[in-house]
Amino acid sequence: MIMADKDLEKIFQERVDNEIKIEPKDWMPDAYRKTLIRQISQHAHSEIVGMLPEANWITRAPSLKRKVALLAKVQDEAGHGLYLYSAAETLGVERDDTIEDLHSGKAKYSSIFNYPTLTWADIGAIGWLVDGAAIMNQVPLCRCSYGPYSRAMVRVCKEESFHQRQGYSIMLAMAKGTPEQKRMAQDAINRWWFPALMMFGPHDTESSHSEQSMNWKIKRFSNDELRQRFLDMTVPQCELLGCEVPDPNLKFNEETGHYEMSPLDWDEFWSVVKGNGKCNRRRIRARKEAYEKGEWVREAAMEYADKKQKRREATKAA
Amino acid sequence: MSNKKNWPLWEVFIRSKAGLSHRHAGSLHAADAEMALEMARDVYTRRNEGVSLWVVESVHITASDPVDKDALFEPANDKIYRHPTFYDLPDEVKHM
Questions:
Q1: What mean pLDDT do residues A282-287 have?
Q2: Half-sphere exposure of residue A57, counting CA atoms within 13 Å on the CB side?
């Protein structure tokens, strides 16, 4: 029996509406598949590129304790990238093709990683603000309608709560430290505050994929809702550090119970997305170099595996 | 798509503790089984998630087709006599 696409689409939407997960071999609309491939692979790229700004400080961590924690965090990001690439592959794309799209610039990654990490305090600010914003975005994705993505996000979220805490712990140490350390902490907050708020993406009115993604239950909350939640949660944490929120217009609205902030600089956001951030070229260059320099290793491992296999077969035959 | 020979895909199963069965955790690429095991350890068990790992090359898994779901599983739906609650017993029979 061959069903018309519109009937299949109706069954699909009913399943989604009833919170039944969609699994790789189930029928799904092409646009749903494409949206997920785009979103999951860009999410994977963000994890992988996200290792670069932090790796910058592994060798210069101020103590062994901070160093092993940062190493573990960066290793987690690699793992998260791998869970996500695998989830994307269940939709029928090849790993190599998604990586090729990153290298050619066709696929994007989170723009936040195009900012440089100038001091050790940046590592604190990244863990606290960038991972904090990422967690805010990712927790609802654990309930995403696509099974493999949702399962990957459950693992990621479980692991990431340590990331944010290690970041905040660095900020605490610096904010309570010498005047020089405190200056570094404040400087890092000044530079990461607005880029972190922009991680939630354009305003709801400007967000092109939002409505459809909500209907498909890929997305559960709008960009502005999540941004507001993050702001409300993060301002008191900044105050606890004894640092200033670098926004002259920040105020608490007693009536709504929410903080209000300055308008975000979307020209800067789009300029960084389009490749003009401080580190865009450096990030892609580093990824390509790693991939190209690893080529002989991948080939040699495959050759060695073939050789072992042949040897086993020969022994068996003898 | 490149025509290089890529590392095949493997499915990873983890036994979280003795007494429980292995459960699917995810997948990864590796050149052979030995490497797949090593990678599975790094990718899927960084926080004591398991005491035992299985890796199976994905091409060796035969899966049922979701289209056949009804044909395969529907027949079990109306066989309520396969469940203990189907049988009414007098209250005097306390534990059975």
A1: 97
A2: 29
Mark the ranges of chain B whose per-residue pLDDT is less than 50: 1-2
How confident is the model over A22-65, as pLDDT tens digits? 999 999 999 999 999 999 999 999 999 999 999 989 999 999 99
Letter string b/e over residues A279-301, b meaning 16 or more CB atoms within 10 A of that residue's CB: bbeebbeebeeeeeeeeeebeee
Nearest-5° Cα angle at A35, A33 to A37: 65
Is there a contact between B31 and A95 if contact means CB atoms under 8 Å apart?
no
DSSP A300-315: HHHHHHHHHHHHHHHH
Nearest CA in chain B to A308: B32
| CB within 8 Å of B95: residues ≥ 6 apart | none
Instruction: Write out the two tokens for A130.
Output: 């960038």
**B36-95 residues touching A, CB cutoff 8 A:** 42-44, 46-47, 63, 65-66
Q: What are phi and psi of A91, to 5 degrees?
A: -95, 5
The contacts of residue B87 (CB under 8 Å, 6+ apart) are: B81
By Cβ distance, the residue of B7, B28, B46 closest to A86 is: B28
Helix H or strand E encompassing A251: strand A251-253
ipTM score: 0.89
List CB contacts (< 8 A) between B4 and chain A. Answer: 96, 299
Residue A271: Cβ within 10 Å count: 13
Phi and psi of B28, rounded to 5°? -160, 165
* pLDDT, tens digit (0-9, with 9 covering 90-100), for A58-83: 999 999 999 999 999 999 999 999 99
Closest among A4, A22, A93 to B66, alpha carbons compared: A22
> Which residue type is seen at A132?
G
- The pLDDT assigned to B4 comes to 62
Task: Write down the residue that tokens 């922009």 correspond to.
Answer: A198
Q: What is the DSSP letter of A146?
A: B
